[in-house]
Amino acid sequence: MDVTNLAAQLNAGAILPEGVVIATLLVILVGDLIVGRSSSRWTPYVAIVGLLAAVVALVFQWDIQNPIAFLGGFNGDALSVIFRGIIVLSATITVPMSIRYVEQSGTSLAEFLVILLTATLGGMFLSGADELVTIFVSLETLSISSYLLTGYMKRDPRSNEAALKYLLIGAASSAIFLYGVSLLFGLSGGQTRLGAIAANILADGSDVPIGLVVALVFVIAGIAFKIAAVPFHQWTPDVYEGSPTPVVAFLSVGSKAAGFALAIRLLVTAFPLVSEQWHFVFTALAILSMILGNVVALAQTSMKRMLAYSSIAQAGFVMIGLIIGTEAGYASMIFYLLIYLFMNLGGFTCVILFSLRTGTDQISEYSGLYQKDPLLTFGLSICLLSLGGIPPLAGFFGKLYIFWAGWQAGAYGLVLVGLITSVISIYYYIRVIKMMVVKEPHEMSEVVKNYPEVRWTLPGMRPLQVSLILAVVATSLAGILSNPLFSLANSSIARTAILQSTAVVHQETAPIAADSVRTETALRPSQDAVQAL
Fold first, then answer.
1. pTM of the model
2. Which of 241, 294, 350, 511 has the most beta carbons within 10 angstroms of its beta carbon?
3. Residue limits of the NAD(P)H-quinone oxidoreductase subunit 2 N-terminal domain (predicted)?
């Protein structure tokens, strides 16, 4: 094989965004080694610029002619581009959230950014991984970086405990997942590419081998751990409560998006013979996640634990799109993750601000906050109302699109469970808002009575303010001006070859209108709702 053919098969241009992130990571690492702790004045802004440059590179890869790279190990199709974009944006918003928090803890900001960028890199590669070895290496890159971020506050016993729990449960999950993919490797006759695995198993022509069902069970266990689906959610509340809050914000969006990208690519491509089985299993996971996540969240007294159970419930909503398996279903997943990025990170930004000023995250301590910090109260209220699905905010249209897609596909039970649990979720979101806004001055908590003067001129506070305003504006406008996001989500599915055959099969059993009609119908309820308001 000559150099020209090798370069064509490697097609390194497909991972240009990842190359930008690697270059940014190296600049921060080397700069910190040379300059020392004073590098914290410029390293966050280098990280933000590098991540935004990666987003620009992803935009130029939208219509890439040859998405297959590294001898079939990486697929840079539209599906991977959109998921990589979600992960990069979540890291971009997390960086300004972290500056004040990390510096106040007395730890190195540059090291934190390097680990965060490494986790971002793992998630990006996982979103496009099309081969077993690439999948596992990317998954471990993301996981190990997440363990390090979770235990980054070395002086905090809760952070150490969260990291240890996350490491032990995560290691067991990785071992289970690895066993599942090793069974796939054996059943396919030694193939590692997902397409070749499916082709070799289908070529046998016999009934579904029992080994394939066993492999499916282990693979689903690994994926469910990554997206925090019940009953693989046990790590989530403790890790969310003990970890540094910026880390929790990233894990709740970036890590979850990477897990869903892996689920779509691996299950659709490598398990066509057991499609009914994995749809059934994910139906059970979605129902359990929506019910348990929302019901247990009602009893929480800590904001971080409440948002942890909220993220479990949100994973259940997103799984509806994966289960129905139509183009509208996959597009609704992507649309919901795009808006979840802003409303969830906005909520965590408010939690960081409150904990920095008061040192607590107890819900009862938010009592009467609007009198001392109107911006924080307004921002947190908007993000919580959006998470609850209140119109005309973005979360309402995200749930509307998912439920509409599920109803059109005939998943009536899933949609009804989703609607009922959404109503339950509104209660615990509204409870926090009521605590902040409705309380009289004499009912103000002791923490709020001693609330420090709001000063945005302190080091690291201005980027935090920018993150909050950006998240609130995006959450508000993404609902009213949702057409571009609808179009982006639908276009990403229409341009992804691996999802077309699957969608056709599901449409034969549950007919759905053509793409233009579907998009028009999906947009119509959102536009009517806006006009009514």
1. 0.91
2. 350
3. 13-99
